[in-house]
Amino acid sequence: MSTSTLVPEDLRADIEILWDYHDMHHVARPSDVGIGLGSHDLGVATCAADLYHKGLFPLIVFTGANAPTTISKFPRGEAIHYKEHAVEQGVPDEVVLIEPQATNTGENFTFTRALLAQHGVPVTSAVLISRPYQQRRAYATCRKLWPEIEITCAALPLSLDDYVESIGDVDRVINMLVGDTQRITEYAKNGFAVEQPYPDDVGEAFGRLVRAGYTSRLI
Fold it and tell me: Boundaries of each DUF218 domain copy (predicted)?
C-alpha cells in the first residue's frame, strides 16, 4: 500500500469505531427496487449489480447529479455513470432508471420516489445501496422521508483497509467518516432524518478525530 492508503495506526481504533457504527449490518432482503445513491464511489454501482444478479430486486434506480468532488470523475453525472457501470456488469439496460437531479441524500429519496410514481412502479420495500459509511445516514433519511416502505441497507462488504485502498486516499475516507458521524445527530435535530442511537464510544471517537484535524467535511 502507498502512504495515501495506510490507515494511521495511532487513530485506527477510533476510525474503526466510526466505520462499524455506520455499517447497519443488515442482510439485504428481496425488495421491489434497489436504490443506488450517487457519490464518488463507483463501488455503489458494483454492489447494485451484484445484488441484482442475486435476484434481490427486479429494478434499479441510480440517483445523483454531481457534488464538487465528483464533477471531474463523473462529468455527465453520478447516476449516468453508475448506470453505465452496472450495464457493463451485465445488468440489462431496461431495468435501470436514472434520477440525475439530486444533490443531497434527502433529494435522492424525494426525487426517486417521484420517478418511480411517474413510471407506475408500486414500492413497498427497497434496498438502499451506498458507500459503506453512508448506510446509517441513508437509513435515517429514508425512514424520515419515506417511512411507509421496508428498507434494508447494503454496501460492498469491504474491510476498512480494503475500502481505503480502493478509494486511494485515506484522509478523504476519514474526513468523510467524521462528517457523516456529525450529520447523524445534526440532521436529526434539523428534521432531515430520524434519530439514531449514538453510543458514548462513537461520540468520543468522533471528538478525538476532530481534534486530530479531520474537519474538512464538518458542517
Answer: 45-151
